[in-house]
Amino acid sequence: MAKYLLLKHYRGAPAAVNDVPMDQWTPEEVSAHVQYMRDFAARLEITGEFVDSQALSPEGTFVRYDGEGRLPVTDGPFAETKDLIAGWMVIDVDSYERALELAGELSAAPGAGGKPIHEWLELRPFLSEPPTITE
């Protein structure tokens, strides 16, 4: 089994087919989308392929250790992940092909008008071992 991260983006990925921002959806469309996600996760729980998932709030703060007693540093040339990452799901599957299949299915969650979003999801494998460093 291999773990994969399915990463949902607010922006930064290619545009979805049904590219209406969620804040413009009706409450019923939002509910249908959330229910699709729950049903998808429930099916994967039955097969043992679901690990965890979370939707993320758009609020967030950058924090960095900058020495004893210093305040967090928040400025710099960093991507604002609160503007980029909408949520994630972790799956544990038998193959890369299965991970692709599930990512494709999750991409079809309904959006505006009840039509599938066909959003792009980022599929990333977890490292199974620390990388080997050679110098």
From TrEMBL:
Highest taxon in the source lineage: Bacteria
InterPro entries registered for this protein in UniProt: Dimeric_a/b-barrel, YCII
Protein name (Swiss-Prot/TrEMBL): YciI family protein
Pfam family, one: YCII
Ranges for domain YCII-related: 17-106
Recorded family membership: Belongs to the YciI family.
